[in-house]
Write a structure and sequence with these properties.
about 120 residues
């Protein structure tokens, strides 16, 4: 089984590369995310572990919080990210049991999409 930190890194990187995604935020509640930011600053935690993975009783929940570009409809971006998470987890050959994926949009930016 792949370790959750490595899986989170892979998912975070893949989500950042998804069309319409402007950024990825920590999926934890704001106070927990603030504590995590301090941990990153103190080099206690890596800044690329933003996707939350919880495993319990044969059930896995993966949560991601993103910013989207206004130029791409947010529902389409959320759907793409959700499908991407399922694809990456399946490609890893993960034995995850039942899977729940949650993708939340925290911010919609008016900025211009990056040129590929």
């Amino acid at each position: 089984m792949i370790d959750d930190a490595a899986l989170s890194r892979r998912l975070t990187a893949a989500i950042r590369d998804t069309e319409g995604v402007a950024g990825v935020y920590p999926a934890q509640p704001i106070v927990e995310a603030a504590a995590g930011a301090i941990a990153v600053k103190l080099a206690l935690r890596m800044p690329d572990i933003l996707v939350d993975i919880e495993r319990a009783d044969g059930f896995t929940t993966i949560s991601a919080h993103i910013a989207t570009f206004a130029a791409v409809p947010a529902p389409s971006t959320v759907r793409r990210v959700g499908e991407l998470i399922r694809t990456v987890v399946t490609a890893e050959g993960e034995s995850i049991g039942d899977l729940a994926v949650t993708v939340k949009v925290r911010l919609i930016e008016d900025g211009v999409l990056p040129v590929a």
